[in-house]
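Good morning C.,

I know you're traveling, so I'll keep this short. The sequence:
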Amino acid sequence: MTTPPAPQVAEGDNPFSAELTANAEYSADFGLRGLEPVAAKGLAVVTCMDSRIEPLPMLGLQAGDAKILRNAGARVTDDVLRTLVLAVHLLGVRRILVVPHRRCRMSAEDESALHQAIYEASGVDTRSLELQPSPDLEGSLRRDVQKIRSSPYLPDDVAIGGAIYDVDTGRLELISTHLT
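The tokens, ready to paste straight into the viewer:
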């Protein structure tokens, strides 16, 4: 897999000018003013940062319905747990769904292979970072769901599920649930 070339930016140009222009258009008729910060459907979704995943439409949701947490590989890290604790206790979350996906770079290789790929692509040694790839996608998902379930900071009545998303079909496959 090759890294796309960086966009060409003339000296003195803002590398985010296209996004800022798009934001000005978006904000001109902004419709989410006054939306409450709680998850209206009581749902938090932990999913991958992959741009092929559209969490809200994928689940039939609208803005404000759920809290969306994204990272490489949809892994349940300490920061994800921290965020889920806040979401459950302060933002109306009563259900948590973890959604990694098929054809994810984080499930294609092990830790050392990913570090090597980064080094070969950029010359940067990332071995001091824990990347947390998950070549056993189902096994990792089950462990991540259990990690949430085992948190002493989350109440027992929070429903927790794990599903794998197929980026080629848009379908979810339920793998693991811990219901109230």
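Safe travels,
E.
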